[in-house]
User: Fold this.
Amino acid sequence: MRFQNQVVWITGASSGIGEALAYAFSREGAKLILSGRREAELERVRAGCASPDNARALPLDLQQLDALPAKAAAAEALFGRIDILVNNGGISQRSRGVESTMAVERAVMDTNYFGTLALTKAVLPAMLARKSGQIVVVSSLAGYLSTPMRSAYAASKHALQGWFNSLRAEVHPDGIAVTMICPGFVRTNISENALAADGSKHGKLDNYIARGMSAEKCAEKTLNAVARRKDEALIGGWEVMGVYLKRFAPWLYTQVIRRIRTF
Assistant:
């Protein structure tokens, strides 16, 4: 088993990709710390793991930035270290940029970007002292592709790409790997929980999400990338081609994205 006795901390572990990652890592022998806002759901996921006794639930809210260093210390105390931090927690948005309140813009950035950075900064010193560890960031193809109705979400994922690509170069001499996971459409409740313009829940399952890859398949591909300590993995179906279209034919990408309706 590739992750036998490795301590893996997963945020956003109560549903979707995070839940699927918890089960996949557990099947491969990892010791798990499962984090998210809903303790009851974390306990449900823990109970469903291959080795529940080797998993712990640690509730946290990524928007509560000042509390995250203490959460990191509590996580390290559970098994004595963090070998792999999987920054998976996040929230999406479905609204026109002109209509989204600043509270929505701030909530998306605080959760997806600043919360992820704060947790990473809290975990990194111990990894650097040991000269080993891996930071995994579940970003999105939206880190490359800005699509209608997702302006705040795309901005947060672009920011993650920039910051962690810089971090990768900084910590490489210290034996730390940084792996960016960029999924496309995955069948989760992300669109239903996305924020509307006024901060309420979008409450709808997007058509493309409904037809997307299963969370289990995404988790399988993610574990393969993590095991290989890859710099980056683009995960999805036809939508991955958008990254290459934008790179090699940006004029055509611009024409396509004006017409696409990804909801």
In short: The longest strand covers residues 176-183. Residues 100 and 197 are 4 Å apart (CA to CA). Residues 102-130 form the longest helix (29 residues). The two ends are 39 Å apart (CA to CA).
